[in-house]
Design goal:
This protein is 51% helix and 0% strand. It has a domain of 52 residues. It contains 3 helices and no strands. The chain is elongated. With 79 residues, it is mostly helical.
């Protein structure tokens, strides 16, 4: 008797993500892909997108401090 069950798909990932880049950006990404030793761009991109970090630093305090320093530098002292 022949099996009527479907074979499981070979790929786990079925969704495509698209990015746009300049030629220079693409070249840099490909160099980083090669340097990473992960083998393929797909694996490199997935690893970076899932495990990579973006650090956001609040510089508000420093902007305020810079504004005050500029203010001091522009004051003219009259004797």
């Amino acid at each position: 008797m022949e099996s009527t069950q479907k074979q499981p798909p070979r790929r786990k990932r079925h969704t495509t993500l698209t990015i746009r880049a300049t030629e220079d950006e693409k070249a840099l990404i490909m160099k980083k892909t090669e340097w990473s030793g992960l083998g393929t761009f797909n694996l490199y991109a997935l690893t970076m997108l899932i495990r990579g970090e973006i650090k956001k630093i609040d510089l508000t305090h420093y902007h305020e401090l810079a504004k005050e320093v500029r203010s001091i530098g522009t004051k003219v002292i009259h004797f």
